[in-house]
């Protein structure tokens, strides 16, 4: 019934009495009445729960709406304030006030006994448990009191946790005998009791260990203050060996994690190793990179699991190091810079009290939502599963409370966090899966590893205040909107993919069980093709901003038990320059030095954005010259898609200048739009500058913030958006390091002198050559703003860095002195300004030359993308014009996924001594022996010019003969991937021992290690890990490309069985792109261009097999 017919009905029968009235809170104020009580109950339960007891006040009359702006079902007789549930989150204390209950009304509501109560007591609640907990605020009664610090607690478990902290204090006061649970509490004590001791806030620091060795620990906060970082530096012995540094820092690492557990409760943590690798460059010099290797995230609920998780994290880091060496070419470890421990408080999801189901879920009738008022909703769901009550009121908790003892919790308190579910599974012999629900999407949160026959599926829903667990009674019905077919389906609980037959599901689980639970969406048929569609990437952005920060490393000393040197990076200055569409600076470079540098930067950059946004959103009408008109009429092909122009040609013009550009198809012209974004380019934004900016961005209120993360703390890019009229204009912060992953010094060195146009614009000195190289700066010497007043360049020793354990050479120092004298610098402040100014202008020239290369050779502006792989992939799609078919069958996808193993990186013979007659140590009495070093040029490129799959994937019968497999041509247009069993004949073992065929991923246990490896461990704890291993064992369910299979069979392996065959169309579709880059690299005249074309080839390789499972979504 709509509102008009409803009002008409009321006007037509004004005297008709309806005994059952609908009451709702909020602005709607329905007040609709019903003849039948059941109809009222049905409507009421759709909008809010039916509580055990409802307090009636003011009656259900129009006067209710005249006197009270919102109706609440529960009211407290003690206070005079009305609040909703979200405002009462912290109001959970009890009261001793006694209630009088009014008689029950016809609708089932109760109210206060007297009118006086209505006039005096006005606070009200939507649920009975909220009322009870609120009434604690009036009693001032605390049941548990600490006799050490006099704190009081109402809950036993809070008191127990508090007392545990007293028993494990770590920080001692050096002035008196008191001890404290954290450094923060110690600092508070010192300030209050010992003011003579000078203290400062701890934000970032370096600490020496109590053992007195050379390892140091530095602490800092993360970008969003979620993770805190502690840095462990290697000793002289361990800085070139990952195993040694892991062995050295293990005791300190475990102690630090346990300390954080005591401080924060449950924690999550991960480790990151920063290392320097080197190799010989093509010009005979030395090339260096500084990669980071990250472990997986570990969750610690108690300290007793730390000892197991630390070795697991080390193993993950070593796997990342192996992958880096394998993918690189000739990299050798130079030194390990530090190990970073990142720790954050772990807050698992809790299953709590009742929440109303979204209407879409109610309509599915697949979920039982029990209306409990306690914190035991998960327990009631398990009991409901066992009892299987199908009555219409099965949502009432009273059905289940008599059976509470059937579920064993073994001391686990409610609300039950998801990480404690394995305990309940073990005690109840159940398999429990928990799914989340957000934005009409169901996704797995916890999927059991148990194989029990009895399975319970739960749905965890949430609002702004709490979470609530419901029982899923029918998974097919819950997920049924994913398909138009209404028949029952079988679902994989790990990826929520549906299957029509149990047999297909069992086959799928062989692959899916190897991955973490994750909701997987496959493309729909007809929409499962990748091709170049981002036409607007060809439109150069008219403005970019290049910027950089400089910081002071402020050190402060504080003694508390162990000696700790505290340091924090405080931004002290910045520079930025705006580059226009012509590649020249729009205005002179802006330089700032002073306090609050990040705030000052954001204020100025947002002002610049306002000015540039006004230009971006204004459209200059087209200005056609007679020649332009002639060109338009004579054009035969669209300049975007290169197809013939017919009757749909339109004039394309530059909206910023009004200049005519070309004749286009109407559809191409619509796609060729100018993106309303302004890139702000930094070098190493992800690891440094982004952390500074993020702390200031949190203060902005009127901007939409979005990020593309690699982890929760590090972002590939982030943006600030704001709408101007009908356009949304954004500042996109971009990291040039994601395109050119080397130092700015190396990039500047590779650029020829004639390419520094922006630098020359901003300096009018004739001896500009002094600035065509990266300058040097004494970062750790600059500890305060007072240093800027010093009137001479500090000594060469002041340029040393404790992080890299190195300084500058005499030539670099003489260059710094020359620059100081030539530019007549008066103090270190002016030296800072010149240094950051040159850094930004050099960065601008490097990036502009990179943009020009992209636009010249590929017709794309790189600032539309965020990384080199993304850019290379778009370049390849645009150049090859090859549509690529995507899988719609999840089993096909996982079949291929399981076959991706990586490449071998191994030295089977560790030592060999040559006896070369051309060398001085030649021994004529021994036979001549040479060592040959072989390397494959353009390794990735060589693989990408071969025939590659592009579509028409299908399964074919596995009933094939050996002769048929061996007869498939190498250049066949049809390719095949097999799943087979192979036998490795014993007679081949000696011959193949150095380099066995068919490597496979294996879980390496301690018993699999060689005696030498066991000796290297020297008693250190070993954690089993997965490695790609060449071995002589027989292969089971081995997934292999047909060319490799033919090669293995030719060299003696025996085919035992064929399980599956995937057929597809193939051709060398990527060859055109790879050969283009290879040829351009040969013809390049500068190191910068040579590196560019090599990058465009190698980056495309990783994109062809990108693992999107690792992508994360971070919302700020």
From TrEMBL:
Classification via SMART domains: ZnF_C2H2
GO molecular function: zinc ion binding
Keyword set includes Zinc: yes
Gene Ontology biological process terms from the UniProt entry: DNA biosynthetic process
Keyword tags: Metal-binding, Zinc, Zinc-finger
Pfam family, one: Endonuclease_7
Assigned GO CC terms: DNA polymerase complex
The UniProt record lists the keyword Disulfide bond: no
Residue intervals of the C2H2-type domain: 144-171, 169-199
PANTHER family associated with the record: PROTEIN CBG23764, RHO TERMINATION FACTOR N-TERMINAL DOMAIN-CONTAINING PROTEIN
Protein name: C2H2-type domain-containing protein
Organism, scientific name: Araneus ventricosus (Orbweaver spider)
């Amino acid at each position: 019934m709509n509102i008009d017919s409803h009002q008409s009905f009321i006007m037509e029968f004004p005297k008709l009495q309806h005994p059952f009235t609908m009451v709702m809170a909020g602005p709607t104020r329905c007040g609709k009445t019903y003849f039948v009580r059941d109809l009222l109950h049905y409507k009421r339960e759709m909008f809010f729960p039916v509580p055990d007891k409802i307090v009636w006040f003011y009656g259900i009359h129009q006067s209710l709406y005249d006197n009270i702006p919102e109706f609440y079902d529960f009211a407290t007789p003690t206070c005079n304030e009305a609040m909703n549930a979200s405002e009462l989150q912290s109001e959970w204390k009890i009261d001793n006030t006694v209630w009088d209950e009014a008689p029950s009304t016809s609708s089932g509501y109760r109210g206060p006994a007297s009118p006086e109560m209505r006039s005096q007591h006005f606070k009200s609640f939507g649920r009975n448990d909220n009322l009870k907990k609120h009434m604690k605020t009036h009693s001032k009664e605390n049941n548990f009191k600490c006799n050490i610090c006099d704190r009081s607690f109402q809950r036993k478990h809070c008191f127990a946790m508090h007392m545990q902290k007293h028993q494990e204090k770590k920080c001692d006061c050096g002035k008196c005998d008191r001890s404290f649970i954290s450094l923060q509490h110690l600092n508070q004590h010192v300030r209050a009791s010992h003011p003579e001791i000078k203290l400062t806030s701890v934000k970032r620091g370096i600490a020496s260990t109590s053992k007195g060795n050379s390892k140091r620990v530095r602490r800092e906060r993360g970008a969003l203050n979620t993770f805190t970082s502690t840095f462990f530096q290697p000793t002289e012995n361990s800085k070139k060996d990952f195993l040694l540094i892991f062995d050295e820092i293990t005791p300190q690492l475990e102690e630090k994690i346990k300390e954080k557990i005591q401080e924060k409760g449950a924690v999550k943590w991960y480790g990151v190793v920063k290392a320097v690798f080197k190799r010989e460059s093509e010009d005979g010099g030395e090339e260096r990179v500084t990669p980071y290797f990250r472990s997986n995230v570990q969750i610690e609920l108690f300290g007793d699991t730390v000892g197991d998780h630390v070795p697991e994290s080390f193993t993950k880091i070593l796997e990342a190091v192996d992958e880096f060496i394998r993918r690189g070419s000739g990299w050798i470890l130079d030194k390990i810079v530090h190990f970073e421990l990142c720790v954050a408080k772990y807050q698992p999801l809790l299953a709590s009290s009742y929440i109303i189901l979204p209407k879409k879920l109610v309509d599915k009738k697949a979920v039982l939502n029990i209306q409990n008022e306690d914190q035991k909703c998960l327990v009631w769901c398990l009991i409901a599963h066992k009892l299987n009550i199908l009555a219409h009121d099965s949502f009432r908790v009273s059905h289940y409370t008599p059976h509470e003892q059937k579920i064993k919790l073994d001391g686990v308190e409610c609300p039950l966090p998801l990480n404690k579910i394995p305990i309940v599974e073990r005690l109840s012999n159940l398999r429990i899966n928990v799914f989340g629900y957000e934005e009409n999407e169901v996704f797995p949160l916890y999927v059991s590893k148990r194989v029990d026959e009895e399975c319970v599926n739960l749905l965890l829903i949430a609002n702004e205040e709490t979470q609530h667990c419901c029982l899923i009674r029918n998974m097919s019905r819950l997920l049924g909107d994913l398909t138009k077919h209404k028949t029952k389906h079988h679902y994989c609980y790990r990826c929520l993919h549906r299957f029509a037959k149990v047999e297909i599901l069992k086959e799928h689980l062989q692959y899916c069980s190897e991955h973490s639970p994750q909701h997987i969406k496959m493309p729909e048929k007809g929409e499962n093709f990748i091709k170049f569609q981002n036409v607007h990437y060809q439109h150069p952005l008219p403005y970019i901003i290049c910027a950089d920060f400089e910081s002071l490393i402020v050190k402060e000393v504080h003694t508390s038990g162990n000696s700790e040197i505290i340091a924090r990076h405080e931004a002290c200055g910045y520079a930025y320059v705006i580059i226009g569409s012509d590649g020249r600076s729009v205005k002179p470079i802006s330089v700032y030095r002073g306090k609050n540098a990040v705030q000052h930067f954001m204020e100025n950059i947002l002002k610049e954005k306002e000015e540039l946004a006004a230009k971006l959103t204004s459209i200059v009408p087209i200005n056609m010259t007679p020649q332009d008109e002639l060109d338009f009429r004579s054009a035969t092909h669209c300049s975007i898609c290169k197809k013939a122009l017919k009757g749909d040609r339109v004039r394309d013009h530059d909206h910023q200048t009004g200049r005519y550009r070309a004749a286009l198809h109407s559809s191409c012209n619509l796609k060729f739009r100018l993106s309303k974004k302004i890139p702000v380019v930094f070098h190493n934004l992800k690891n440094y500058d982004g952390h500074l900016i993020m702390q200031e961005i949190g203060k902005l209120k009127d901007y939409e913030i979005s990020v593309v993360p690699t982890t929760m703390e590090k972002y590939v890019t982030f943006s600030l958006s704001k709408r101007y009229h009908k356009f949304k204009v954004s500042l996109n912060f971009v990291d040039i390091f994601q395109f050119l992953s080397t130092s700015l010094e190396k990039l500047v060195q590779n650029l020829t002198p004639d390419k520094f146009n922006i630098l020359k614009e901003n300096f009018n000195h004739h001896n500009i050559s002094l600035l065509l190289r990266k300058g040097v700066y004494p970062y750790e010497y600059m500890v305060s703003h007072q240093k800027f007043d010093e009137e001479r360049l500090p000594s060469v020793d002041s340029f040393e860095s404790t992080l890299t354990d190195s300084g500058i050479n005499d030539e670099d120092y003489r260059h710094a002195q020359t620059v100081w004298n030539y530019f007549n610098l008066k103090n270190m402040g002016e030296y800072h300004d010149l240094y950051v100014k040159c850094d930004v202008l050099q960065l601008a020239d490097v990036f502009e030359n990179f943009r020009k290369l992209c636009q010249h050779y590929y017709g794309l502006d790189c600032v539309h993308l965020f990384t080199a792989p993304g850019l290379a992939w778009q370049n390849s799609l645009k150049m090859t014009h090859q549509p690529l078919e995507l899988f719609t069958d999840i089993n096909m996808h996982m079949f291929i996924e399981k076959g991706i193993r990586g490449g071998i990186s191994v030295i089977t013979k560790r030592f060999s001594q040559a006896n070369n007659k051309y060398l001085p140590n030649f021994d004529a009495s021994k036979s001549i022996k040479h060592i040959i070093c072989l390397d494959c040029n353009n390794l990735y490129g060589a693989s990408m010019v071969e025939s590659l799959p592009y579509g028409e994937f299908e399964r074919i019968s596995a009933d094939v003969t050996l002769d048929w497999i061996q007869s498939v041509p190498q250049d066949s247009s049809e390719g095949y991937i097999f799943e087979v069993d192979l036998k490795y004949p014993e007679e081949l073992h000696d011959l193949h021992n150095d380099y066995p065929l068919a490597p496979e991923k294996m879980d390496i246990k301690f018993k699999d290690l060689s005696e030498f490896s066991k000796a290297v461990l020297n008693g250190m704890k070993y954690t089993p890990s997965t490695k790609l291993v060449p071995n002589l064992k027989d292969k089971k369910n081995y997934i292999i490309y047909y060319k490799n299979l033919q090669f293995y069979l030719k060299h003696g392996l025996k085919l035992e069985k064929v399980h599956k065959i995937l057929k597809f169309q193939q051709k060398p579709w990527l060859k055109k792109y790879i050969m283009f880059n290879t040829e351009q690299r040969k013809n390049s005249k500068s190191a910068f261009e040579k590196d560019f074309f090599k990058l465009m080839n190698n980056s495309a390789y990783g994109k062809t097999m990108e693992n999107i499972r690792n992508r994360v979504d971070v919302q700020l």
